Amino acid sequence: MNRLRIGMPSLIELNSFEDTIDLCRELKLNFIELNMNLPSNFIDNLPSDKLIHNKEKHKISYTMHMPDDADMGVFFQSVRDGYVKLALDTINWARKSGVELLNFHIIEGAKMTLPQKKIYVYDEYADIFVKNFVESFQVVCKSAIKDKIGINIENSGNFNRVFAQEALNRVLNIKGTGITWDIGHDSANNFIDHDYLMKMSKHITHMHFHDTLGQKDHLIPFNGSLNLVEHINFAVKKNLTLLIEVKTIAALKESVYILRHKNLIPI
Question: What is the model's pTM?
Answer without folding.
Answer: 0.96
